[in-house]
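Thread amino acids onto this structure.
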């Protein structure tokens, strides 16, 4: 068995693992990233596209914001389409100038991969049978296989950035974790198309037939979603059927402006809310989807991962530079304060904008009334806006 050494072993080369690795590398802290898939597979994942201001600033801090700033679309608001009327949520005016950035997760990942390669920091792709060991001891290490050879990676700490189905959380004894979960009875059918956006901002539509979202990746590439039953089959949805259903859920003015075209990608994503507590086990820290999932309605998934990265990076910085090992045990507590607030907002947006077939008429009317109250009140719109642009990151002291 070959032995390798690093300071922080990172499991997972998605955006959270790569971003943590870049920040640590720039600070002179050695990292090695292990990823079970190939680089092409990682880049093939179609995911989020709305970045909170905090994540935008974190990417700039990591030195990977140049292409994002050149090609990303700064949005100062978004639209709610409710029973045919459109309500503008002016993020900038309601939050003192804050905005979001529309820039695809694939592009974030691509930029981080390129930066890591330029830095000469090591990522081992297609690493099999990755297993963390000794997380509760002073002898922390990870074993894995690569090209038929066995490896042992000795390290100080492990960051589990390997997603909901990854090995990091699964290697923690079940009795040490408390799981909170809600599975929704519907999913999002999404398509990617090379068509101009129907509107210059994102449009979230509540309709009697179900929720719809008009999003984008650029001025020429769009991402649209429809609420569909959880057991729906993607093959049953032709492009034409999708476009027709989308038009039926949008206000007439938007439906008339919708440019359709062949889909590049089409898939159905299930919706769930999930949190595991605590987000650490000894010297292993869970980051992003490994610890929490949000329904995508509030655009919080990737952004929550970024705030976890910021927290862990700043803690490890103080550990290595100032010997502040006392901060390590605060990681989960700090992260979870922000996680639960984002879970609440994502749950609220999902509850307000989706059709729930199991709700009685009273519950449906209450949901409509609550949403009307929020959008018709400046205080309500401000609450939506400050959550949407992202709550501030907690200082590490």
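Threaded sequence (397 positions):
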């Amino acid at each position: 068995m070959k032995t390798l050494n690093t300071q922080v072993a990172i499991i997972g080369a998605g955006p959270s693992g790569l971003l943590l690795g870049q920040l640590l590398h720039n600070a002179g802290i050695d990292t090695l990233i292990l990823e079970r898939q190939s680089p092409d597979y990682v880049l093939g994942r179609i995911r989020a596209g709305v970045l909170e201001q905090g994540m935008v600033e974190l990417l700039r801090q990591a030195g990977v914001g140049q292409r994002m700033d050149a090609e990303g679309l700064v949005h100062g608001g978004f639209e709610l389409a409710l029973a045919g009327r459109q309500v503008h949520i002016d993020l900038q005016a309601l939050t003192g100038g804050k905005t979001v950035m529309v820039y695809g997760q694939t592009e974030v990942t691509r930029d981080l991969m390129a930066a890591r390669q330029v830095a000469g920091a090591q990522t081992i792709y297609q690493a099999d049978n990755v297993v963390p060991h000794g997380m509760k001891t002073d002898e922390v290490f990870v074993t894995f296989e690569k090209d038929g050879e066995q490896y042992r990676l000795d390290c100080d700490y492990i960051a589990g950035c390997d997603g909901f189905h990854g090995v990091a959380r699964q290697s923690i004894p079940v009795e040490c974790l408390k799981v909170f979960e809600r599975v929704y009875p519907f999913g999002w059918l999404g398509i990617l198309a090379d068509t101009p956006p129907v509107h210059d901002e994102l449009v979230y539509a509540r309709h009697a037939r179900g929720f719809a979202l008009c999003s984008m990746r650029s001025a020429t590439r769009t991402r649209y979603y429809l609420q569909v039953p959880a057991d729906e089959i993607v093959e049953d949805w032709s492009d034409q059927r999708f476009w027709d259903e989308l038009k039926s859920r949008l206000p007439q003015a938007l439906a008339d402006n919708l440019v359709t075209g062949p889909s590049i990608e089409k898939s159905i994503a299930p919706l769930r809310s999930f949190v595991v507590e605590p987000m650490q086990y000894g010297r292993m820290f869970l980051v992003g989807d490994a610890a929490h999932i949000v329904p995508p309605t509030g655009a919080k998934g990737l952004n929550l991962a970024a705030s976890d990265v910021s927290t862990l990076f700043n803690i490890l910085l103080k550990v290595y530079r100032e010997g502040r090992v006392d901060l390590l045990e605060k990681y989960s507590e700090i992260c979870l304060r922000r996680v639960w607030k984002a879970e609440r907002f994502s749950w609220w947006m999902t509850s307000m904008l989706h059709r729930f077939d199991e709700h009685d008429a009273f519950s449906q009317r209450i949901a409509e009334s609550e949403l009307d109250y929020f959008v018709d009140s400046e205080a309500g719109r401000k609450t939506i806006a400050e959550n949407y642009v992202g709550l501030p990151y907690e200082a590490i002291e």
